Amino acid sequence: MKTQSKLYFYIAISAILLVIIAVWSLNTGVYDFGGKSAFEVLGKVIQGDSGLSLSDKYVVWDVRAARIIMAILIGSMLAVSGTGLQGLFKNPLATGDLIGLTSGATLLAAIAIVLGGHFKEYLPEAVQFSLVGISAFIGAFLSMMLVYRISTSGGKTNVVMMLLSGVAITAIGFSITGFLIYISKDDQLRDLTFWNLGSLAAATWTKNIILTIVLIISYIILIPKGKALNAMMLGEKDAQHLGINVERLKKQIIIMTALMVGSCVAFSGTIGFVGLIVPYILRLLFKSNYAFILPLSAIFGSILLLTADTFSRSIVAPSELPIGILTALMGGPIFIAILIKFKKSL
Amino acid sequence: MIKAHQINYKHKDFHILDSVDISLEYGEFLAIVGPNGAGKSSLLSVLANEIKSGKQNILFKDKPITAWEIQELSKHKAKFSQHNSNDIPLEVKDVVMMGRYPYFDAQPKKEDLEAMNSMMYETDVFHLKDREYNTLSGGEKQRVHLSRVLAQLQNEIAHKLLFLDEPLNNLDVKHQYKALEIIKKFTQKANSAIVVLHDLNLAAQYADKILLMKSGKVSAYGTPQEVFTAENISEAYNFPCTICDHPITSNPMIIFG
Amino acid sequence: MKKFILAASVLVAVYSCKKEEGAKKENTTEVSSETPKSTHKIVTLNGGITEIVAALGHEKDIVGTDVTSTYPESLKATAKDLGHVRSMTIEPIMAVSPTLILASDKDINPELMKKIQESKIKTEVFKQEFTVDGTKKLIADVAKAIGNTDYQKLNDKIDADLKQVQPIAKKPKVLFIYARGNMLMVSGTKTPMDALIGLAGGENAVKDFEDFKPLTPEAVVKANPDVLFFFTSGLQGAGGNEGALKMPGVSQTNAGKNKKIIAMDGGLVSGFGPRLGEAAVGLNKLLIENTK
Fold it and tell me: What is the ipTM for the molecules in this complex?
């Protein structure tokens, strides 16, 4: 019987793994710190060493460290949102990108960027971020409601409908966003195309603070729900008999995943497949026990995205491989593996 | 213990349940029987507070069932559903442990493990506890859920209520009797059970009261002796039958045809 | 078991990466101890700007350029190619320790711009206008930024070259096609190619839209150019003259029927730097040849 102490054990070793990878990532990059390791320089930054060159400090702190933290935050939230959605829809293919949440978020955020471009000079940066973030959240939320309404009835999910509504939303998002790109002026156009690519290069500490707040709020509500998601596998009625407030649980998952997906899309563009890869791998180890895979996906998502991002900026240095390519490289085969398993059970 | 008055449950214009009255005391084993489409499962669902069927007030332990706090209620009543999920990617013991969810937050306590294990013994699935649920046969899965539901009510609370919707489907004879024995033992400890059954003879043997339904209405209600008459049954089932006395137990024995 | 393998492979990866880092560091320290220190270390993120800085005699000061900075070719040996400004990140720029970054306001990724500004490295962003005066102003501005006042001769050269442009009696209609892979775009007005065509004595066959738009056969036929104009690399990639003639709509145009196809080096055409005059003269000669 897997107990809580076993969970803590796994969390501990994953956390250690994450730290190791973070140190590796910190030391990776084309910038030369003149003989010192990036890690030493970071130490000096934290101690407030005034003898540090501005460039060194800038690269270690504002470029690498900020980016590493953003990868950790976004990777974690993308994985948890995927796991949560899979618990809600009772299907391993339910993830933010496959069911259209990221497209919906991208669409509304694109609209916000184009409109906001007109007011750019009058608004402080934090407000600009918030507007895009809020639009992304609303976009994710609306897509969520649409998919949920179309694909579930009586608590049962029609998987095909779920995925197809994702396809439909993605198509709508793609066309409208494409249209916006087509008609927009130079500045807005640049903002849109770059941000659409999916990249952690634009990490800043301001964004990280906002992401951390979103993460803390969502996790306080969602992470303890592992048990409840297990009960949902029995069916909504039976889960209710076990004392789980099913309607409240569904609302919480819907709102929190929309919030997380929206924030991630707002700050890093579309990075796909994390919500698919992480729960899949965890299920191989722990089966579908959400009491384990929900909290563990929070750490493994970070590990995955941080590793992918570090590779993306070291494989073809000084250039960067778009991170979406790496996640798709892993995600594609996993998608197929899930489909094959699904076919066997038909 | 549970009282419901004039339950109406409609789907569009069709009365699935029509003016059903029901009342159950402590220690009673009530069997709901009737032909297909009579509304047995729906009645069970309404009583178990699964379906909100309009204005009726179902009184559970003299308190409206909607006034109960969900988690507290789950320690007093449990329901075994007719259609159980075929795909739960967990081990058997994890599924049974779910029955104890109302009792612990993150870490199951000793009594939860004990309840889980003893109920697995009772339904004869203990030897399957480390198996993957999805690899079990239909009957085995059924027994796993039975032990889960029983484990849910293993506690010190008095006067608990068990709802069971066709718990004997897919079970072989030995396990059918075993299940009924468990339910009977349960009711003999001042708890109650409402069970939807298809086999009238088993109902006759084990139940204290019978509710015979047809087309959403109560056709007959009373002890097995009172309800199981040839007229009642052939009228409800639209099929000829004869009643005689069971050679050993002297309960009514129904023979169709 | 699986977790153990995962953890072990990560540790191996970390260790081998550390080793690589160590080796790389050794290389870079060796190189930097050999080259002499100069007063400026300049990163130029635009082809035209790169040419200006080189023409002003500061080629050795350039430590990094963007991918479009192809001239002078000797830069390949001394300056690092930092990639395309659309996808560049800040770290490679900082890795060459520049004291000055020169960039154009066109095309650059706004996030990269933000990061450059945060890095506190001295940066100048220039507006690029695709006219003769605009180019002269750019030369003057860039010269000022690097502290060199001796730029007049560059402007003079442009004027001298431009004087050699011969007017063409019947202005040929020129259609510039940007060919890359399967993507074909045509240049409307307000592009460097449009301006250059005008300077070279031709006229843009397309007048009814700005900027680049995807090629459509109808637009091509309507424009009915006398000459098709490509980048050398683009034409080559599209299959040479034969490939060009097969492009949609071309066969119905004067250019297609008369097989009048010309190409010039991309950097030369779009740089709009000190070689502007050269470019105009080059294009002018090609146009004259192809409109006899």
Answer: 0.86
